[in-house]
Automatic annotation (TrEMBL), chains B, C, D, E, F, G:
One of its GO terms (cellular component) is ribonucleoprotein complex. GO terms for molecular function: structural constituent of ribosome. Keywords: Ribonucleoprotein, Ribosomal protein. One of its GO terms (biological process) is translational elongation. Belongs to the eukaryotic ribosomal protein P1/P2 family. It comes from the Archaea. It comes from Methanolobus zinderi. This is Large ribosomal subunit protein P1. The chain holds residues 1 to 63 of 105 of the full protein. Forms part of the ribosomal stalk, playing a central role in the interaction of the ribosome with GTP-bound translation factors. Part of the 50S ribosomal subunit. Homodimer, it forms part of the ribosomal stalk which helps the ribosome interact with GTP-bound translation factors. Forms a heptameric L10(L12)2(L12)2(L12)2 complex, where L10 forms an elongated spine to which the L12 dimers bind in a sequential fashion.
Length: 297, 63, 63, 63, 63, 63, 63
């Protein structure tokens, strides 16, 4: 199959690797481009294992991935733009939204390295630390963390933002943050895009707001219930509400229109009595002698 | 509600709440009395404990 | 409450709530009809906006 | 309480709440009328908006 | 709601709420009866304690 | 309630809520369709403004 | 909301809410199905408890 009229020599293992990528692309209904920057090799190994049965993770050189894309169909070419430093490919038979969810859930907080850029504001909260007094106190203070001694322990006196989003974190600050067990970086397989049946899905589409689905189901349930009761379509689920509504309407009408029916006489008498008491209190406010002793309480 | 007030008035005055009594009270107030309503009221009150119905209202009534 | 249900039934069916209509409905339901109650009901509903009265909560409603 | 019932009855019937009217109603109910009380009530109700006062009876008896 | 009122009327009158009974009541009210609706109502009422369902009306939360 | 969801689906999709349409949707969902229920639903919805009915709280004002 | 109605229909009918089932129901309703939306719904429902949401609807203030 392979036509070899290149003048440059391509090692066999590279050719095999490209073929392997192409095969995977053809075999699976969808694949994604994943960023793996900052993941220690050991952790990556663990993640790969964790995905077993769900997805196949393939780490390769970008040049080989590009070549495999070039040699695949036009749709696959759309994925070129998502290749960046430290890229891997992920293949699955799963629904792309599920894949995204699985990868997001596998992310975990990690220590930041010296020289790295803060991914968001890094805040040290006020409160006790686990350190006994010692040189650590000066180390914390030297990176701008307001540390002090209290009751034989090192404490952080006030909450402080030690690095703003986008700032480079110094080696010294990074090591203090790590000692304080503050992990500002989220490490994990970062899905950049998925290709499925010619469509590219990016994280802005793949991120599902589950609370929105929950509230939509609540709304739909209420709409169905409202419609069924208001249109009087009786079912097992709403018959009690419908009867209750009819009974309320009948009572309302009976009381509001003063219909003398045994079932509502108690309410009518109570209503008359309440009205009498209200008028009595208005009258006695003007003149106590206007009402009899029974009402003066 | 006139009929109800008439019934309560009679009850408080220690009289029986009959069609005739209600009619007499309402006529004294200068209203035309609808026989059917007076009859219906008396019938509806047959098994009602007026004292109890008034007592529940007294508890719940505003000061 | 049968009389009130009969009235609501007629109202919802777009019919006039008359003594005859109420009597017919109650008889079809197999109940013996008390003329005074039917008459009293019609009298009570005379100047009432049924739609409004059935939808207005009776507990908190002013007199 | 009879005096108040009589007053409410008159009010609901669209009549003026006068000493004479209250007396007539109470007498029709078979009660002895205390003139001073009837006078006092009429005076006390003079600047009371009965309709409004009744409406404050928002808490009615339970069903 | 006509069908429901018919059912409650029958229930209050101490009759069984059957398709035939509902049809008879509605026809007496001069309405055309839809068999399917009568059937659906009777089916929905199976195993339902109407008395209990009506009682929930007294405590039902307002809209 | 499957039938109601089918009706809501059709309504939202801008389709007429007919017996045939409801039957088609329910069958696509793999349920056996009860003709009477489908017919009853269509009849119940006949004069109903679905948009309004689905948005209006179904609980009646308490008595 | 069509996708939600379709899902609830399937749920109420005791069927699994799969992409294929949703697609079938929506197509039967005459709507064009967006694969991504169907997929997203199925993925979302994996972690959303429909029964719980329905129960919430029952106690929450109606829409």
């Amino acid at each position: 199959m392979e036509e070899v009229h290149h003048t440059e020599h391509v090692p066999q293992w590279k050719k095999d690797e490209v073929e392997d990528i192409k095969e995977h692309i053809n075999k699976y209904p969808l694949f994604g481009v994943v960023a793996i920057g900052g993941i220690p090799a050991k952790q990556l190994q663990k993640m790969r294992k964790g995905l077993q049965g769900t997805a196949v993770l393939k780490v390769s050189r970008n040049t080989l991935i590009r070549r495999a894309f070039d040699e695949s169909n036009e749709d696959v070419n759309k994925m070129h733009e998502y290749i960046d430093s430290q890229t891997a490919l992920i293949f699955t038979e799963n629904n792309p939204f599920k894949l995204y969810k699985i990868l997001e859930q596998s992310k975990s907080p990690s220590p930041i390295k010296g020289g790295a850029v803060a991914p968001n504001d890094i805040v040290v909260e006020a409160g006790p630390t686990s350190f006994p007094p010692g040189p650590i106190l000066g180390d914390l203070q030297s990176v701008g963390i307001p540390a002090a001694i209290d009751a034989g322990k090192v404490v952080v006196r006030e909450t402080k933002t030690v690095a703003k989003e986008g700032e480079v974190v110094s080696q010294k600050l990074a090591s203090m943050l790590t000692r304080l067990e503050i992990y500002p970086v989220t490490v994990g397989l970062d899905l950049r895009a998925v290709l499925e049946s010619g469509s590219v899905f990016t994280p802005d589409v793949l991120a599902i707001d589950e609370s929105k689905y929950f509230s939509d189901i609540v709304l739909a349930t209420q709409q169905a219930f409202n419609l069924s009761v208001n249109a009087t379509y009786p079912t097992k689920d709403n018959i009690t509400a419908i009867i209750s509504k009819a009974a309320s309407e009948a009572r309302n009408l009976g009381i509001n229109a003063t219909v003398y029916e045994p079932d509502i006489m108690g309410s009518l008498l109570g209503k008359a009595q309440s009205e009498m008491l209200s008028v009595a209190s208005a009258a006695s406010a003007n003149n106590e002698e206007a009402v009899d002793d029974e009402l003066k309480e | 509600m006139e009929y109800i007030y008439a019934a309560l008035l009679l009850h408080k005055a220690g009289k029986d709440v009959t069609e005739e009594a209600i009619t007499a009270v309402l006529e004294a107030a200068g209203t035309e009395v609808n026989d059917a309503r007076a009859k219906a009221l008396v019938a509806a009150l047959e098994d009602v404990d007026i004292e109890e119905a008034m007592a529940t209202a007294a508890v719940a009534a505003p000061a």
